[in-house]
């Protein structure tokens, strides 16, 4: 099966990835075999997506020309093997640490991240914190929502996407990261009642609106 040809914008991004110092419009037009105007149109689109930016003037033998380079967002547009590295790191930690110690570390990491986000939650009611937390989880890719099936006087969160699913299946201690993040930002104990990594349909979290102990696990 043949791979579909890359779009012009993808080709431009690849050219800039391989040219750390940047390329001018003329240089890109020559490499792609298209007109300057066509290149300029594609660059305008890429700039709107914040994937490229103008760099310093370059001397091409004639009049200095403006060059373009990738932004950080443009660099991150290309595939990264974060899951592979995360799995390797957790494998090493699991070999060196007792299960309880690994869970403690994941809890500490979740709490540490939450501490940097706490100013966004300070002064809010439990319900307002819940809404803000759902928004944060959405940005992180959890596909989260307020769980309408939660018991009365209970705050419930339902997430249908585990952002590190394959890794969590192998290292369940990773779920402590989520619990610590949620508990710190909601300012109350959180109970995880279901888990996608354990073959459940969604990850569900519960806590009491008025504080105190979290509801028992289902």
Strand-residue proportion: 15-25%
Q: What would you call the shape?
A: elongated
Biggest sheet character: 4 strands, antiparallel
Proportion in helices? 40-55%
Radius of gyration: 24 Å
Strand order of the largest sheet: 4-5-7-6
Q: Identify low-pLDDT runs.
A: 214-218
Number of separate helices: 9
- In round numbers, the mean pLDDT is 88
Decide which structural class fits the backbone: alpha+beta
Q: State the order of secondary-structure elements, H for helix, E for strand.
A: HEHHEEHHHHEEHHEE
Separation of the first and last Cα atoms: 47 Å
Give the strand tally.
7
Walk me through the structure:
By secondary structure, the protein is α+β, with helices and mostly antiparallel strands. The chain contains nine helices and seven strands; from the N terminus they run αβααββααααββααββ. A four-stranded antiparallel β-sheet has the order 4-5-7-6, covered by helices on one side. A three-stranded antiparallel β-sheet has the order 1-3-2. The longest helix has 19 residues, at 99-117. The protein is elongated. Residues 214-218 have low confidence and may be disordered.
């Amino acid at each position: 099966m043949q791979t579909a040809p890359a779009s012009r914008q993808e080709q431009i991004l690849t050219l800039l990835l391989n040219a750390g110092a940047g390329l001018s419009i003329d240089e890109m037009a020559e490499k792609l075999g298209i007109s300057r105007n066509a290149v300029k149109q594609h660059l305008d689109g890429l700039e709107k997506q914040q994937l490229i930016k103008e760099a310093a003037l370059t001397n091409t033998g004639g009049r200095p020309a403006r060059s373009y380079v990738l932004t950080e967002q443009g660099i991150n547009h290309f595939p990264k093997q974060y899951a592979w590295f995360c799995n390797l790191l957790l494998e090493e930690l699991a070999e060196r640490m007792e299960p309880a110690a690994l869970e403690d570390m994941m809890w500490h990491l979740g709490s540490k991240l939450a501490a940097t986000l706490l100013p966004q939650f300070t002064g809010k009611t439990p319900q307002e914190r819940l809404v803000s937390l759902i928004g944060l989880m959405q940005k992180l890719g959890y596909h989260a929502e307020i769980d309408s099936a939660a018991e009365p006087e209970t705050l419930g969160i339902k997430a249908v996407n585990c952002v590190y699913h394959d890794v969590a299946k192998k290292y369940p201690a990773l779920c402590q990261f989520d619990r610590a993040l949620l508990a710190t930002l909601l300012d109350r104990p959180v109970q995880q009642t279901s888990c996608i990594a354990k073959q459940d349909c969604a990850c569900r979290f519960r806590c009491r609106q008025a504080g105190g102990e979290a509801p028992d696990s289902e």
